Fold this protein.
Amino acid sequence: MSLALLAALSQSPACAEDKPVYRCPGNLYTDALTAKEAHDKGCKTLDGAPITVIQSVAPKGGGSGKSSGGGAGAGEKVSPDDQKARDADRRKILEAELRKEEEALAGLQKEFNNGQPERKGDERNFQKYQDRVNEMKAAITRKEADVAALRRELGNLGNAPASK
């Protein structure tokens, strides 16, 4: 009812000025309430605020269910071949990511040089050098955690098919 009322209000601005429009909890806009009803429901008056009404579009398909669901209910079933292909793709992506992270970790460790990285020209101040060493240590710790997480994820992938 209130959506139709809002549509009518948006089409004839002169009518909208006759009655106060209220914004109620839940983003409900209406002018069909009395001042007492609006106050009781916790609605606020919109004074001079422009109201834009956007008509919702019904989803295509008419709500008759999923096209390939065939009455699957809450979730669609995936064929075993599709699932194997998805798992293989996931494994490839994780392995590529692991290689990339391991290379980045190796580069950081090489630059770190067992806690004695070479000083840069702008690091004449020892504290500046020490700050960079601490940042490198933290970056290495983060990379090690990333590598460990990727290895765990790959290990979980390896265990998943065996348990079924």
Observations:
- The helical segments are 2-11, 13-16, 35-41, 80-112, 126-163.
- Confidence is low (pLDDT under 50) at residues 12-16, 65-73.
